Amino acid sequence: MFSQAHNFHISGGQFNNVQGNQYQYNMGSGLDKLNPSYQAFFDTDMGVELSRSFCTRGTRTEVLDRILAWVTESNLNDNHSGGYWMSGMAGTGKTTVTMSLCKELKETHGILAATFFCSRQIPECQDYKLVIPTLVYQLAMFFPDFSALVQNVLDGDVHVMHKKSSEQIQKLLIEPWGMQKDLHSPMRMVVVVIDALDECNGIESVLGPLVSAIQNKKLTGLKFFFTSRPEQVIEEGMITKITSTQEILQVDEFVLHQVEYNLVQRDIHTYITDELHDLALSQEQLKTLTNLSGKLFIYAATVIKSIKGGSGIRRSRTRQKERVKSFLRQENNTPEDLSKLYAGILESAIAKEEPSPSEVLENWKIIHTIISVGEPLTCYAITQLLGMNLEDDDNDNDIVENLIQRLQAVFYISKSTNLVFTFHASFPDFIMQYDQVVYNASIQHLDLTFSCFTIMEKLRFNICNLHSSLIADSEVKDLNERVAENIGETLKYCCQFWNYHFLKCSQSSYEEVLGKLELFLKQKGIYWIEAMSVMKLLPRCGEIITLLLKEIVTSQQMNTLKALVEHLQSLLIQFASSEVKDMTPHLYLSIIPFWQNNLGCIPYIHKSVKIEHQVGNWHAQDTVTINTSPFIVHSLDFAPDGTKLVLGCSDSTVRIWDASTGVQIGDSLQGHTRTVNSVAFSSDGTRIVSGSDDETVRVWDAGTGVQICEPFKGHGRYINAVAISPNGTKIVSGSDDNAIQICDAQSGTQIGNPLQGHDLKVSSVAFSPDGGKIVSGSLDRTIRIWDTNSGVQVGNPLLGHSQHVTSVAFSPDGKRIVSASHDKTVRIWDAITGFQIGSALEGHESYIHTATISPDGTKVVSGSSDSTIRIWDISTGLQIGDPLNFHDKGVAAVVFSPDQTNIVSSSYDETVRICNISGGIQFLTGSTPGLQGHNDAVNSVAFSPDGTTIVSGSHDKTVRIWDAATCVQVVNPLKGHENFVTTVSFSPDGGRIVSGSWDKTVRIWDVRTGTEIGAPLVGHETHIESVAFSPDGTKVVSASWDIVKIWDSKTGHQLVGDILKGHNNSRVNSVSFSPDGTLIACACKDKTVKIWNASTGVKVTAPLPNYNNGVNSVAFSPDGKQIASGSDDKTVRIWDASTCVQLGNSLQGHDYIVTSVAFSPDGRRIVSGSLDRTIRIWDANTGAQVGAPLQGHEAGVKAVAFLSDGTKVVSASWDSTIRVWDIFSDIDKGDTLKYDYMSIVSIAFSQISPANGSHIVYDYSMTEVGNTFLNQTAHISH
User: Which residue intervals correspond to the WD repeats (predicted)?
Assistant: First the structure.
């Protein structure tokens, strides 16, 4: 078709975490799937060789002999421990001893099977998640039989190395090790070494289950040698509590710093003599240096490095002797005073060249940066992080390197990588506690956060200058060179670690950085995702966003930032879960054009795009679409922790997805031979149960994906529903054979007889929260409750549905049951009595397939063949907001996430959609199909005094009360009026509502219960247009076409005697009390505003003149000094209430009749509504319009009101809707296309689907800052 067309296929590979902060794509089969940390091996040579040395010959012999004696003891001795813990204070030489031990075990005894040397400096060596996979990898290399067993586990779950440590230990170590042949042979005894536990973050999660396995003899034939500082969290992992006061150490312990002083001094003397033999020092000099070291080998090692010089550069013999003399002069210092040693080295190095104060400060910044970064960096990268301008001064890089050279006793530069390391973990500890130059961690990380943001300003569109979108990233031959040239070490570091530094800032300093963070996300967030994609770091990208959201959610002051992060997360999910995730240019070509970039993120892409079909899209705000073609997802369930989704699919598979990215985890779970109709997680998240048209129930290990037991085959026809009991011991299933069966979750064997009672297919089953009952729904239109233990039906069937019952579920407290049916209704039932609660929830226009209750028990979500999802308030039965209408076909399944921030649904349109509902649901009360609100024009609306509630009155003869925050009706409609409700108002205390109607009555209602208080107030002879409470709540004023009446609000008696007359038989459209309650203002059809004494009914002023047409609305200012009015002449006018003189000119702007006016609570603004469909806000002092008109109503606006704090306006319209406006965001929105950096000329996308052979065709030109994809045309086919 096209000259440049290519056949195109994207494999379903995954992004997997490798060695901490490195990532690898599509790793091969076998043991490589474990992704071991090679740098943690004891004999590694990857840049840290100088920090792991061996004991000097003839030293530490007693210590090594003691350990070797434990090694050679028989494992068959019941009293022998399989674990040995050598603890020691910092600097006592633990790692050096361990290195020598490993060398001995490997070279002499041949029994060193695996090692893991932890290190704070190397990310992958301080990641506890890599400990077990790395050890298992080495054991597998040592034992062929064990290797085969481990590979079987990996074939079942390639992601097992990302599971919890306890699962790793069980699945990768205990189970395969126990299956080995010749397990108890003495020849099989080998040693596993883990050094420096205290330098591995989160090691306690590994240590607990591992030591338990050792103690319980589950790893017979393996001996584990541990070393660490004597820290409490590690000691707790080594012990078992017998009682509250008695503990037992589960491993042998040797405390290195308790070795006899003379033995340690002897070994240190030998070590110093050997290292400094070229200097021909006297025995007295050697003894002095030895005494200074006390029992700390690190002291001796640091002294020697200071004397001789560090790696690569040696001092002359003369300089070395001078350094010796400087240490000999410290012979009166306290032995082992490592702090004084470090302080002396620092002071000597920094003061050596008589630096200026600014140079001293610069040196300390370098030191503090080195110990604060998330991973070691080169001198060049450190220079850039510190903001030194290399272009202006070529020697800036030398400043860092020269300082490192002067501090070779504590720092060194790796020969192989040029990365800067510290020799010993005790040095950063010292720096953080050094009182001469204070290290403030929060300030340091705040500075580094700002540095990262500054450096990431280099991020730009197409940063690696990829020339074609036709080529997958992995096929770009020089991609690594492009990344190195255009991104480089420093920018790569910032992209990965900006969040690391931000989260280490104190919360008190957040205010300083939030603005910068928000700006970064808006201007560079998309480019950041691009850079992470091209570096194969999308999983890290998702991890950063997830961690950031967890931090943001704890702060109520970060709502704007939270919305922005969630906005970018939706883009990331759509890209990472798409079929073009391995082709970075398609982030811009195939994803962003369908992303609703309504928060102004750069780049903003014009939506002048021709779309035939879409690879992915957003049909609604904050909704992400994941195409599942060619299969349909029939069932969904979240893991209890919300991190995973399990899917039951039409292609006979069960799939597990990462809930944060929508990416499939591991391979599909294979076993079923027909459609999987139902899936569920166990309450602990470790197992999955599934039911299928193949008439089987299967149980799967959620971590490995391995089937746990034989399939349950008790049913004779299709299985429609499964559930697992809360305690995980039982599984219930419902089938087309009309029966319900219970089986053992471990063995798969049937428990008792089938539960018989339904006359037709069983469509849905669920356990009660305590597991004592089962509820079932059937095509026989009934719901039944069963006793789990006896299998006996509890009570009578629940009757009410008129067609097939498709879904049932218990509420979290077990007190209610929700059901859905083909009769288009959802119903709520009392789980104890079996009675229906309230009316059926109606709104869907076709069969309802699924319904479930939210985790907090307050909402119900339902999905229907009408392609919509609806959310209901479980207490009132009222629908919350609009239907979610983003599926193109019927909804098959829908679930709430455990934290209730998302709804996930699947559909027969072959998509899964993730809808974020944390920001609330849009509220419209009108004629939108299915909405449970007013079904005719809304005439009047008002906020309660405290701003928490809204009341509305409508042509539908009802008064309705709404929660102002959630826009949910809080009680059933208030019914009583027999004609249009034209006016409503709250009492000052918010406890009552008054309403007026064309039925000529006034009614007062209780807000809490929605019941009418007393009898209607009767006396008007014509339609009532306006009502209001007096400021003290004791009176009600009502106005009809020709009269005004005042009533006692408690007794309903008319006050003032006679009616207030004087309107020349002209209709009174609006009445309002003055703030002090002494006056009443009336807006009249006779073109006047009249003011009356509220107590006597006497007119107090002449009518306010100057109107050309009838007056529709009147309102007093909060101080009572002004009156605002709105008229048929399209104007708003402001009057002096005491003189009746108009203030200033008329406020002009509306194009049609002004129907309603109101003052803001502070009196500074006026809001007006008009039949021109707009709401306008005016400055009460100047008369100027504030911002642009508020537009959105599709018919005339009939009523407006301010919230009590003045931040929002509520409006009611003849379009049957009520809208709430945030006036600080809705006013003057401005040009939303101001970030116009990119343009797509034309594009047409087809869904990629092997089933239908469709394709993508596009022709485009994308440019920014000189980077261009020019005239690329692709034909993508299968």
Answer: 633-667, 669-701, 712-753, 755-796, 798-830, 841-882, 884-914, 931-963, 974-1015, 1017-1042, 1061-1102, 1104-1139, 1147-1188, 1190-1223
Q: How many alpha carbons fall within 13 Å on the CB side of residue 165?
A: 21
At 1178 the three-state DSSP class reads strand
Which one, of 566, 453, 553, 567, lies nearest residue 512 by Cα?
Answer: 453
* Confidence (pLDDT) at 1059: 58
Please give the single-letter amino acid code of residue 240: T
Locus of tokens 């022709």: 1259
The pLDDT, as a whole number, for residue 1257 is 31
**What pLDDT is attached to residue 618?**
34
Higher-confidence residue of 295 and 1175: namely: 1175
User: 1070, 1041 in Cβ contact below 8 A?
Assistant: no
CA distance 534 to 471: 12
Name the one residue in this structure whose structure tokens are 């006497």: 1098
Tell me the backbone φ, ψ of residue 1247, rounded to 5 degrees.
Answer: -65, 135
Residue 646 and residue 658: Cα distance in Å, rounded?
9
Residue 1105: the pLDDT is 62
Q: Got the DSSP string for 87-153?
A: E--TTS-HHHHHHHHHHHIIIII--EEEEEE--TTSGGGSBGGGHHHHHHHHHHHH-HHHHHHHHHH
Instruction: Tell me what pLDDT residue 327 has.
Output: 77
Mean pLDDT of 1166-1171: 92
Q: Count Cβ atoms within 10 A of the Cβ of residue 595 and give its class: 0-12 exposed, 13-18 middle, 19 or more buried.
A: buried
- Specify whether the CB–CB gap between 404 and 392 falls below 8 A: no
The half-sphere exposure of 272 on its side-chain side, counting CA atoms within 13 A, is 31
Q: State yes or no: cis peptide before 630, omega within 30 of 0.
A: yes
1273 bridge partner residues: 1259
Q: State both tokens at 786.
A: 């069963």
Weakest-pLDDT range from 50-59, 170-179, 346-355: 346-355
CA distances from 303 to 161, 273, 291, 312, 315 (A): 42, 13, 12, 17, 14
**Cβ contacts of 564 within 8 Å, gap of 6 or more:** 518, 521, 522, 525, 599, 601
DSSP per residue over 567-586, as a string?
HHHHHHHHHHTSTTTT-TTH
- Report the alpha-carbon distance of residue 924 to residue 932 in Å, rounded: 9
- Whether residue 1121 has pLDDT greater than 80: yes
How would DSSP label each residue in 965-1011? TT--B-S--EE--SS-EEEEEE-TTSSEEEEEETTSEEEEEETTT--
**DSSP conformation class of 490:** H
Separation between Cα atoms, residue 616 and residue 612, nearest integer Å:
12
Q: 691: helix, coil or strand?
A: strand
Give 25-88 as a 3 state SS string.
ECCCCHHHHHCCCHHHCCCCCCCCHHHCCCCCCCCCHHHHHHHHHHHHCCCCCCCCCCEEEEEC
Kindly list the distances between the CA atom of residue 749 and the CA atoms of 700, 702, 730, in Å, as whole numbers in the listed order.
15, 20, 10
User: Which of 382 and 321 is assigned the larger pLDDT?
Assistant: 382
Exposure pattern of 1259-1276 as b/e (b: 16+ CB <10 Å)?
Answer: ebebebeeeebeebebbb
Dist CA 298 CA 303 (whole Å): 8
pLDDT at 756: 94
Helical pair 396-406 and 357-370, crossing angle rounded to 10 deg: 80
d(CA 539, CA 663): 10
Instruction: Identify which of 720, 722, 747 has the alpha carbon closest to the alpha carbon of residue 733.
Output: 722
Q: How far apart are CA 1078 and CA 1030, in angstroms?
A: 9
Which residue shows structure tokens 């030489």?
Answer: 93
Task: State yes or no: pLDDT of 386 exceeds 60.
Answer: yes
Query: Residue 142 is encoded by which pair of tokens?
Result: 């040592």
Q: Does pLDDT of 921 surpass 70?
A: no
**Distance separating alpha carbons of residues 1024 and 1160, to the nearest angstrom:** 26
Eight-class DSSP state of 591: I
- Give 21-48 pLDDT, tens digit per residue: 222 333 334 787 888 888 889 887 644 4
User: Is this model's pTM higher than 0.90 or not?
Assistant: no
